[in-house]
Amino acid sequence: MAPSKLNSTDPHGNGDASFSSSQPDNGSSDSLTLFHSEKAVQELLQQTPIQQTDDHLIEFSEALRTVAKALRRAAEGKASAQAEAAEWKRRFELERARNQQLEHKGKSPGECNAGIDAQRVENSTNQPMLRNETNEQSENWSTNGLCSHEILHDGETNSQAKAVPSRIMRKASFKLSWRCKGDISDQHKHDIVSFERGNITAAGRSSKQISLKWESDPQTVLIMTKPNSTSVRILCAEMVRWLKDHKKLNIYVEPRVMGELLSESSYFNFVHTWKDEKEVLSLHTKVDLVVTLGGDGTVLWAASMFKGPVPPIVPFSLGSLGFMTPFYSEHYQDCLDSVLRGPISITLRHRLQCYVIRDGAKNEYEMEEPILVLNEVTIDRGISSFLTNLECYCDNSFVTCVQGDGLILSTTSGSTAYSLAAGGSMVHPQVPGILFTPICPHSLSFRPLILPEHVTIRVQVPFNSRSPAWASFDGKDRKQLAAGDALVCSMAPWPVPTACQIDSTNDFLRSIHDGLHWNLRKTQSFDGPRDL
Ligand SMILES: NC(=O)c1ccc[n+]([C@@H]2O[C@H](COP(=O)([O-])OP(=O)(O)OC[C@H]3O[C@@H](n4cnc5c(N)ncnc54)[C@H](O)[C@@H]3O)[C@@H](O)[C@H]2O)c1
Ligand SMILES: Nc1ncnc2c1ncn2[C@@H]1O[C@H](COP(=O)(O)OP(=O)(O)OP(=O)(O)O)[C@@H](O)[C@H]1O
Fold this sequence. Notes:
By secondary structure, the chain is an alpha+beta fold. The chain has helices spanning 27-47, 55-104, 109-124, 135-143, 159-163, 230-247, 255-264, 277-281, 296-304, 332-341, 418-421, 504-516, and strands at residues 174-180, 183-185, 193-196, 199-202, 208-214, 220-225, 250-253, 289-294, 313-317, 327-328, 344-349, 352-357, 371-373, 376-380, 388-394, 397-410, 433-441, 449-452, 457-460, 469-473, 476-481, 486-491, 496-499. The model is unreliable at 1-32 and 107-167 (pLDDT under 50). The structure holds nicotinamide-adenine-dinucleotide and adenosine-5'-triphosphate. Residues 1-32 are annotated as: Disordered.
């Protein structure tokens, strides 16, 4: 009988050297390192003649290939994201320089608009179309001072967009800075540690709060709502009216909500929505702000719509438990007023990026898309009555074998959700780290871990597992992991910025007090025995 693929890897961290470069910190250098590690794998395989009869070696070599492929793909993904970001920055700078030039030449706003309009027509050939984009709004934008600011483009060239020139969606720009005890400064003294004159000192970042300041007015708001709730539906319609009539904003909603609004009144014809997944993928280039109406689940849902950068989210609480929803819906006008004015305190919530790597994948086309989670990825036994058996590696060092109901890999935002119920610690959402929390481990000594943000975790279902495992992502999208399949998970480059009611720490503490009645106990009475 052929030995299992996992048995061929030393579970105590003495595995093959080609596994040791799985940490993508920097996309390009990682691509190189991973390219080399993949090459090393290839060379190793070529140098080691494989006997067709030797099942063990064949399986092992396939495992190496699959892992090397996954690592390369992760690094390539990151490198291409960085390249995209650099491209956006370049365009931004170019446009700003052009606008500054125009200002220097002393052109009147009318002249300036004319120039930009001409450019818009030219550029709009590259824009994907979104529904309900009317000329009327296009005019609004030009009179709202478009010439004084940047225009960001998608750069997509689909035939539909070419056929119908669409308006340019302008994103408001903003700046994030650290604020320390009322002092707002753009500059850190130092980020992590300082090594001045040989003395190592830690950075005093713990008391700092991230602040978002608009550099131009936000113009487009996406409203996402919890389904099947009459109160949410009523509030949504009211909010859309208010944002349009009082703030003159462009508004996007989901197709379902669009239907609900139109069934109420044709007044809502001006609202935008989208038709397909492709348009959803470009939403982040158009939307300045996302408003959620619902509970934590609606925030998770909104975050899951953005597979890349996420615009700032303003979460209104209309659920029973609000750990990520600090704003009260009764005061939505005041809240939105102050958010639109800025500056606002922000919690940058980290996400995890998860890859499912199939044992059967023979080439990279079979690799599944990464899934981003804001709370956690759970690997459990599903409906099986057998113990799960999961081998876990952190940066290729063997961590442990989970035998129990399963394992939760959670962000710090998710630390108050499923991980908490499974005995994990509650962690401030601004702490960068990955929680490693077992679910009902069949062991007296298995305690939860918190790992640093930069690690890559691999959870593998051994070949000798009695049953498959199941992965679920923020409680959704269950995927089966068969024997030999693995889940690889690391910190994603795109966090979710959520607006704070007061600040990150105050909101977090309020949520655990109000939501969980944390450490509620009657105060001890004054009378009684005491130290003299
Ligand atoms: N035993 C458990 O506690 C358990 C079991 C399954 C899923 N969940 C959680 O439910 C989440 C999905 O939420 P949903 O609203 O889509 O499903 P849902 O409607 O089943 O609600 C789950 C509950 O978890 C709360 N919740 C979600 N994220 C939270 C967070 N970051 N901090 C504190 N509480 C949070 C929600 O407010 C809700 O009350 C999953 O990500 C998982 O964390 C918890
Ligand atoms: N826009 C949406 N489209 C589809 N499903 C959504 C949307 N928003 C939320 N959901 C789903 O609806 C469910 C409930 O959402 P949410 O947690 O916001 O409300 P809730 O259950 O009333 O809140 P709480 O759990 O705090 O009482 C979640 O599973 C979530 O994934």
